[in-house]
Specification:
The structure is a single chain. By secondary structure, this protein is of the alpha/beta class. The radius of gyration is 33 Å and the shape is rod-shaped. Helix 1 packs across helix 4 and helix 2 crosses helix 3. It is built from 11 helices and 13 strands. The chain has 2 domains: 85 residues, Arc Repressor Mutant, subunit A (Orthogonal Bundle), CATH 1.10.10; 200 residues, D-Maltodextrin-Binding Protein, domain 2 (3-Layer(aba) Sandwich), CATH 3.40.190. The strands form 4 sheets. Strands 3, 4, 5, 6, 11, 12 and 13 form a 7-stranded mixed sheet that branches.
Length: 302
Amino acid sequence: MARPDINRSGEIEVFVRVVEAGSFSAAARELRMTPSAVSKLIARLEARLGARLVSRSTRRLQMTPEGTAFYESGLRILADMAAAEREAAAGAAPRGRLRVNTYVPFGVHRLIPLLPRFLERYREISVDLVLTDSVIDLMAERADVAIRAGPLGESRLVARKLGQSPVVVVAAPSYLEANGTPRTLAELERHNRMGFGFVRHIDGWPFVDAAGAAVIIPITGNALVGDGEAMRLMTLAGVGISRLARWHVAPDIAAGRLVPLLEEFNPGDEEVTHAVYVGQGRHLPARVRAFLDFLGESVRLT
């Protein structure tokens, strides 16, 4: 048979039930306790307080002056506890401003198209979105979640993998018409290989040669860009050749706007995307947990 833990709030609740029910037995039925257990609990409460709270000289319990004062105080305490629980439950619900920082291709092609559905599901969340391929300090930028591609460095931050995609070398038909199509790694070295203006994990493009040996071809083109979407647009414009995640350029390849190159020398490496954030478990704000779970169910990178 269930009984409340013997603590101050539990004692107050039992005492209030006894007063309102008018007897130990009636309160016991409501609390799913035995009448003797209720009687003993009230006796322990009176002993701890050093005051009699109810008179047991009649069939119906009567409160002493001390009991009346304790009952009124007890009602206020229980009401305050209920209000505190409601406030805590409201605070635990997904709500408030969600600050998200994402690398540009993911933001443009994956996240922004999903935001209407996310905001419709969580009407009390507002999104503060920043798109940049630069690595940021979550604490300094006050971001809740950063979405990044590539290897993760050592950090006390928590990461959740969102997906991975093969990497492909591509060029626009207009560029290939004007400059020829490279068929070998040696021919590639004569082409305009565009790069990024920030530090990358590997300073060059990895390939495997005809013998299966790993080869890194440096980036020596005449164009540097600050984010992957700008790189895609430069490639579409025919400026040069680029190396991007296949998910990012798959629609362009399917439509013939970009052409994959040197696939037989592709080492098969993949670009991994993570959502990085501070905190975990019960310490993770509900708005952040809701966003991470939504990304997990909605994002597909191939």
